[in-house]
Amino acid sequence: MAALRDCKAWQDAGLVLSTTSNEACKLFDAVLTQYATWTNNESLGGIEGCLSKLKAADPNFTMGHVLANGLELIGTGRSVRLDRELGSAVTAMVALSKAQPLTERERLHVSALDVFARGQLPKACELWEQILQSHPTDLLALKFSHDTYFYLGYQRQMRDSVARVYPFWTRDVPLSSYVKGYYSFGLVETNLYDRAEKVAHEALAINQTDAWSVHTIAHVNEMKAEVEKGLKFMKETEKNWKSSDMLACHNYWHWALYYIEKGEYEAALTIYDKHIAPVCLASGSILDIVDNCSMLYRLHLEGVKLGDRWNDLLGVTKKHTKDHILLFNDVHYLMSFLGAKDCKTTEELLTTLQELARAPHEDQQLSLAPHLGLPLCQAFVEFENGNCDKAVDLLYPIRYELVRVGGSDAQRDVFSLLLIHAALNSKSKAKQNLARCLLHERDLLRPKSPMTERLIRKAAAVHSTA
């Protein structure tokens, strides 16, 4: 690991930090490094430990507050609407910035988080982009915008934001190989699979422990249904990425998806029980929660008996019932409530989302709820209640707009699978025919997909008995 940067090193990099504390500057670098690499480095004290020491080193260091508040907000598990402590922290950060002679870059960072906290995610990205135009090696602006474009489903923006600064990330700039990984993910989400895989391998040639570049290649193999290649790659590289504690669970999720694709459900559940569920129950991180909900629901659609796993998961999802920070998160929490057959919590999530959606104010996600979030959630409810026709009627008209609820193509595939299963299980011949049409579409996109082949056989059986 490169030496942590002090005040002068940050200044020499053109990224002045308004503090006289070298210790604060080094701790800022330590936290940023761990965030950028998806890894809590225990030798540094982990992100939480470093943030605590950072605050003590200079309590009035505005960019220290930006970093701490930004990580909370970008984690999407807390909001200023429901969490008074976080709201106070953001207010204090803004007040502190107004009382100090900061650089324009630092002021833009404060403004970006201030609007993000109010749900204005696209506006936050605009402000981070302003920073990057003048300071292309500002990794915090790059990573915050990258993650937020992902939440927005802005796939081309996520790719192009990195492309615009890519030439400035030369080998001598700290963490430059990880920027290759970010760019590779933008490429995979815009269907440039071969280029994505090439750039990801370039990043891994520099640093084989780069879990995000591994993750890009996992996506490529998933989207192309190259199952055996995917299984081999994850197994061969596991030792390199399993210690990236903030992303390992997600990489194991991709590994398990290959087994679900093959119909090897016990192998998928073994990974779930060993590497996915325990991490989620311990961390409570939103990405881990989403992975758990999504994986169990995919197995549920395949008819797999899941025992008490839904009830175990309910312990971590239930506390987020009224969050409504991201619609993508909401629908995943809903999967767990439906899986656990918790009707009361299901109703609570839907009712509170409906109430907030009536007056979204400046919240971009809530403004999407009436025509996207709520119909999507209701489609899951109708399917679980056996109303397959209604589920199709809700989901089919919005299928091409669902990219706007965010997440990756691989993650949103669970919505496509729900639509196919609902159409297959419908009593309507027209909807059964729709299922066959959707499967033809899927088959051309992912040739030789074992799951698609299974579903085509099921559709043929339905057709023969209809």
Overview of the structural elements:
The protein has 466 residues and is mostly helical. It is 72% helix and 0% strand. The longest helix is centred in the last third of the chain and has 21 residues, at 364-384. It is globular, with a radius of gyration of 22 Å.
Main attributes of the structure:
466 residues, mainly alpha, 72% helix, 0% strand, globular
What is the gist of this entry?
72% of the residues lie in helices and 0% in strands. With 466 residues, the chain is an all-alpha fold. It is globular and about 75 Å long.
Question: How does the overall form come out from the CA principal axes?
Answer: globular
Mean pLDDT, all residues: 96
The ordered H/E elements are HHHHHHHHHHHHHHHHHHHHHHHH
Strand content is under 5%
Tally of alpha and pi helices: 24
Give the radius of gyration: 22 Å
Count of DSSP strands: 0
Low-confidence stretches: none
Helix content: over 70%
* Class from secondary-structure proportions: mainly alpha
List the helices and strands and how they pair.
Blueprint: H1 7-12, H2 22-37, H3 46-57, H4 62-74, H5 84-98, H6 104-117, H7 121-134, H8 139-152, H9 155-165, H10 176-188, H11 193-206, H12 211-223, H13 227-241, H14 248-262, H15 265-283, H16 286-301, H17 309-317, H18 327-339, H19 343-358, H20 364-384, H21 388-395, H22 409-424, H23 429-445, H24 450-465
Helix pairs in contact: 2-3, 2-4, 4-5, 4-6, 5-6, 6-7, 7-8, 8-9, 9-10, 10-11, 10-12, 11-12, 12-13, 12-14, 13-14, 14-15, 14-16, 15-16, 16-17, 16-18, 16-22, 17-18, 18-19, 18-20, 19-20, 20-21, 21-22, 22-23, 23-24
